[in-house]
Design a protein that fits this description.
single chain, alpha+beta, Arc Repressor Mutant, subunit A, OB fold (Dihydrolipoamide Acetyltransferase, E2P), 6 domains, five-stranded mixed beta barrel
């Protein structure tokens, strides 16, 4: 059941007749932090004497604590969030007082976007071990948790040996031997590590290398030896190698997995329905190398469904080749998904499977798992069935090609298909669009840019591909098939992996309300928390100066989608149940759903093993969700590095952009031309001292009241580019939004505020 929006404004009082006063949020958080063993809502309720009447209240409190990072959820279990009493950290800087500042090595950004920074309290070493220095990894005992300024304090318990650490970067050779390592970590941009003479291990200038840190040199400067050469980064075409190694993405298939793939025999008609005469077509990007979905539509001949359609969505039958527990299966689970870079793809499955046996090539017989779905003229699903088939795609079309045919510009491939295949598809989509609009999914208008490379791997240009009805058609067909898959498995009581997207947390909704109020928009005070609430806000700002800003903050208010064995629904799509079924070549979740369907519908012996439980799939869901986040980070960082390379020779040039992020130490700016993100340190802005206004997502001048807010258009100059780190530093040339001056306020000295490096890493504390 959806929450009423009014419930978000404050925690509800204790229900009438309740025997116990409700515990405070602090008491709940303290109980989770201090408890041992399995902790969940049941244990919390018992500890505080809560009844079933308090269930919704407790859910709200835990959601709020979770959004703040104070409680972390592992399946149905809870544990304390934030920094533990003892943790592993890396010393990254010194503050204004000369004290070391560290950051935790591991930090879950789902619960707090930025990790806390820990000021290391000086303690006598007494000769037991060498003192800590910059770049060291240390065990830290927490003394004071992070406050609102994001700063915590602690002391070093143990300095880890340097030779147990590795770092990645680009080797820069020096005449006579040795050299330096230019880190690829954006946080370490500008801090090079010395490579001792004789420690090159054959590395040449420009090589991407991993190094092990050796004993410190004078003044505590880190020194290292090359451990492994990973390839040259002299060409932009190798930039994706950096992300692959930084995120430890498995990219080389073991020999036994390749051997298993090569031994696979093409599937036959045995145990399948023969659909080879059905003119299914694939519609994909023009550069797609594998084709895992094909579609077809016809008007329904049933007189009881006049104006309705019979839709067919056929998906490559990967389960026929990748059996549970096989070498290929274990490798696919480890990868979780394919990873897409501008210059390459790291596939989940070997090419023998993904680009050959399972790719729905035109005019070649291929095995598929198909959904046949009947919809009414209103686009609503009336019934559906799953089939295991042998099919033959009638054509391989691109989005632009199919759209051009519908728009009156058919070519040799689409001309013969226009009336019998394409027009019925578009008619079926028109019906689905009615149901989609009635359902009201979240609609965010944020353009996605695509990098096009030249043959030599350098950036040619950044484009903004046009959104066509052909794209929307495939999206709606796939969503419909995903819903049908989830419903079939729920009805059969077969365990599955859902694609879940929870509703926004209380804390994020309150923050969104504060930001919207700063531009004169009020959140409704009543009504259900549904996508329609956000869509109404987006319609208010459509075409206005705040359109991009509001789209960005609405996006940031949303929860992150994930895979889970428990059904939380899909808030963004406004669907009660949803499972990924349509891309088993590139997503392990879809392969699990295929196996579950084979088991539920008794379509073969290669389905989900009967021994697999919902608990097993919960662990799978967590693992592939982590792999998805890893892939997204790697893809994003690769784009950042490519664009930084592209702009490296334009230092001093001016660009237009918008403020895409605001933190205490400065603002991030996204360029209009390329979509590149860069940082502007607060200390370089204007002639005032700018303080961070979290509620407004803005930096506000202490003396003038001038502000730079998320979404504001700005003109900037490129001051510095660090291509390997993918980092850009800008200087703002345009003025901020006018504000009211503070009477008697004067600008404090520059040294009194944050000290930041070129790319947004805070070096000091607030004065």
């Amino acid at each position: 059941m959806r929450r009423e929006y009014s419930q978000l404004l404050a925690p509800p009082p204790s229900p009438p007749g309740s025997a116990h006063a409700l515990p405070s949020r602090e008491e709940v958080a303290a109980f989770v932090a201090g408890a041992t063993g399995k902790i969940g809502k049941r244990e919390i309720s018992r500890a505080f004497g809560l009844s079933g009447q308090h269930r919704s209240w407790l859910k709200e409190v835990l959601a709020e604590l979770e959004s703040e990072g104070r409680v972390k959820r592992d399946g149905r279990r809870l544990r304390a969030g934030g920094l533990p009493p003892v943790f592993l950290a890396e010393i990254v800087a010194r503050d204004r007082d000369g004290e070391f500042v560290a950051e935790p090595v591991e930090w879950d950004r789902e619960f707090a976007a930025n990790p806390p920074r820990i000021v290391i309290s000086p303690r006598r070493n007494r000769g037991r071990e060498r003192p800590a220095g910059l770049g060291d990894r240390v065990l830290v005992k927490l003394e004071r948790p992070a406050g609102q300024d994001g700063l915590a304090s602690g002391h070093v318990v143990k300095v880890l040996p340097r030779d147990t650490r590795e770092s990645l970067g680009v080797f820069r050779a020096l005449p006579g031997g040795g050299g330096s390592l230019v880190p690829i970590d954006k946080k370490a941009a500008g801090r090079e590590i010395a490579i001792v003479a004789g420690g090159e291990n054959g590395a040449e200038d420009g090589d991407l290398v991993s190094v092990s840190l050796a004993s410190p040199g004078r003044f505590g400067l880190a020194q290292a030896r090359v451990k492994e050469r990973l390839g040259s980064v002299s060409s932009e075409k190798a930039i994706s190698l950096v992300a692959i190694h930084v995120h430890a993405i498995p990219h080389v298939f073991p020999a036994d997995a390749l051997s298993e793939a090569e031994r696979a025999e093409p599937a036959t008609l045995a145990g399948r329905e023969d659909w080879r005469d059905l003119p299914l077509v694939t519609i994909d990007p023009p550069d797609a190398k594998d084709h895992d979905d094909a579609v077809h539509a016809l008007p329904d001949e049933d007189p009881d469904n006049a104006g309705g359609f019979v839709l067919t969505i056929a998906i490559a039958d990967v389960a026929a080749y990748v059996r549970p527990g096989s070498v290929l299966d274990r490798e696919a689970l480890k990868r979780g998904n394919s990873v897409y870079f501008p210059d390459r793809v790291v596939p989940m499955l070997p090419e023998r499977i993904s680009n050959d046996l399972c790719s729905l090539r035109a005019r070649e017989a291929r095995p598929a798992l198909a959904m046949r779905i009947v919809i009414g003229p209103d686009g609503r699903k009336r019934r559906h069935s799953v089939h295991r088939v042998l099919m033959r795609s009638a054509a391989k079309l691109s989005y632009v090609q199919a759209q051009a045919a519908i728009d009156g510009r058919p070519d040799d491939a689409t001309g013969p298909l226009l009336d019998p295949v394409l027009r019925p598809l578009w008619a079926g989509y028109a019906a689905l669009a009615k149901a989609r609009d009635e359902r009201g999914p979240l609609f965010l208008d944020l353009p996605e840019r695509k990098i096009l490379l030249k043959p030599d791997g350098t950036v040619d240009r950044v484009t903004l591909p046009e959104r066509l009805d052909a794209h929307r058609l495939i999206e709606e067909f796939m969503i419909l098939a995903n819903v049908a898959a989830a419903e079939i498995l729920e009805t059969a009581k077969t365990p599955l992996v859902y694609r879940v997207h929870d509703e926004p947390s209380i804390e994020k909704m309150r923050s969104l309300g504060e930001v919207l109020a700063s531009v004169g928009i009020k959140l409704p005070k009543a009504g259900s928390l549904r996508p329609a609430l956000f869509n109404g806000i987006l319609r208010q700002v459509s075409g206005s100066q705040h359109e991009i800003f509001v789209n960005e903050i609405v996006l940031r208010s949303q929860a992150q989608a994930a895979y889970a064995s428990d059904n939380l629904g899909h808030f963004g799509l406004n669907l009660r149940r949803y499972a990924h079924f349509t891309s088993p070549i590139r997503r392990y979740a879809d392969l699990v759903v295929h196996r579950a369907l084979i088991r539920a519908a008794r379509l073969g012996e290669d389905g989900l093993p009967a021994s697999v439980t919902a608990g097993d799939l919960a662990a799978v869901g967590e693992e592939i969700s982590r792999a998805e986040r890893r892939a997204m980070a790697a893809e994003r960082e690769t784009v950042d590095r490519l664009i930084a390379h592209h702009l490296a020779d334009r230092v001093g040039a001016t660009f237009t952009g918008r403020i895409s992020g605001v933190i205490k130490s400065g603002v991030f700016v996204k360029l209009t031309e390329t979509g590149a993100d860069g940082f502007v340190p607060a200390a370089t802005i204007g002639a005032d001292y700018y303080r961070f206004d979290e509620a407004r997502h803005a930096l506000v001048g202490s003396r003038t009241g001038e502000s730079y807010r998320l979404g504001d258009p700005v003109e900037v100059k490129l001051v510095e580019a660090a291509p390997i780190a993918g980092a850009l530093r800008f200087e703002i040339l345009s003025g901020g939004q006018a504000g009211r001056k503070r009477p008697g306020a004067s600008r404090p000295p520059r040294g009194g505020g944050h000290r930041v490096d070129a790319y947004g890493t805070t070096r000091g504390r607030r004065a």
